[in-house]
Every structure is written in structure tokens, then in C-alpha cells.
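input
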Amino acid sequence: MLNPAHAETATLTFPFDEPPETGTVREVAPGILWTRIPLPFRLDHVNIYLIEDGDGWAVLDTGIADQPTRDVWDALAAGPLKGRRLTRLIVTHFHPDHIGLAGWLCEKHGLELLTSQTCYLGCINISLSPNALEAEPYQKFYLKHGMPAD
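output
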């Protein structure tokens, strides 16, 4: 927690003036690329990182499972990733903007999925109980955070 005595001097410093545009990447360190994939919510993007991995790129997180996100991945593979293959998928946690497209990416590119057991089991639980997310507490939470009602 921020100490109120230091609140006046606390600032965020961003290394770049602008984020990468959709379908582009920015090198943030040698061998590490940053891209942003749009989301149809109030939080309008997810940060994705690509880590140099031998002759290809390890992917960190995915975006949601929808056609616009698949289109961005296809554009990245055809353009800024310079024709280098995707090697593996690392998922940080089970929010749909981080793991939502994991199945498609793994199947399309033959990727190994790496994630925590908690993330994996959480996804299995949700997928086996698809109506659970229709419960009122979930609906209120998602509506509050900008997800459309439909």
C-alpha cells in the first residue's frame, strides 16, 4: 500500500509514449515483444508478450475467444512475427482475456500449454459448469466491469 506521506512524489513512469497499435508489436527488451489485443469491454485491451524461444516465439496470454482476436493473431503471425513459428503458450491466469483463445492457438499452432494447476482446474470447473456464470453474482460483476448484457 502506498504510504500517504509519499503520495505527492509517487508517479508512474511508462517507458513508451504510446502502446503498440493493434496488429503490431514493440520490442520492450531484447527478445521480448509486446502487443495489445482489443477487448469488447470497458477494459479495452489485454497486453500480450512474445518471448524469443529458439527459432520462434513463446506466447504469454491469448486474448478472448472471438473472431476479431483470431484475426489479430493471424495478422501477427503473417506480419510482425516475421514468419517465425509460435513455440509454446504460457497462460498467467484463468480470466477469459488471458486464456480464452488458448484452445484455438494450441490447436492451430501445435503449442504446448503451460499454466498453473490452479488456472487449469479453474478453467475445467467453469467449462464443466457453463451455467454457473449465469448466476446473479457473476452477472452483476461482469456488467459492473463493462461487459455487455448479451
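quick obs: The chain has a mean pLDDT of 86.
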